[in-house]
């Protein structure tokens, strides 16, 4: 377990969008050894919805466009997956 002060000091330097982007990249890297395109697609869709649902007062508007693109690309990956 990480102490809360360490997490708080990390999040003070970045906005919520950057923290969510880091978590998205880490979960995508964690899913790569599974070699499942459907799991990767579901991860992409979920994070697209998370980026879209994040209030605009917390993140810059370009994260909303990232969420839209992830929601569009995710189902295509799901259909192409085995």
UniProtKB/TrEMBL annotation:
Transmembrane segments: 12-32, 39-57, 63-81
Pfam families: DUF8006
Domain DUF8006: 1-81
Recorded superkingdom: Archaea
Record key words, sorted: Membrane, Transmembrane, Transmembrane helix
Keyword Membrane: yes
Entry protein name: DUF8006 domain-containing protein
Lineage: Archaea, Methanobacteriati, Methanobacteriota, Stenosarchaea group, Halobacteria
């Amino acid at each position: 377990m990480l102490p809360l002060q360490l997490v708080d000091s990390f999040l003070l330097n970045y906005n919520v969008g950057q923290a969510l982007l880091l978590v998205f990249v880490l979960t995508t890297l964690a899913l790569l050894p599974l070699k499942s395109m459907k799991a990767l697609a579901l991860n992409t869709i979920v994070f697209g919805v998370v980026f879209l649902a994040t209030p605009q007062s917390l993140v810059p508007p370009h994260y909303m466009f990232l969420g839209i693109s992830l929601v569009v690309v995710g189902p295509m990956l799901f259909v192409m997956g085995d």
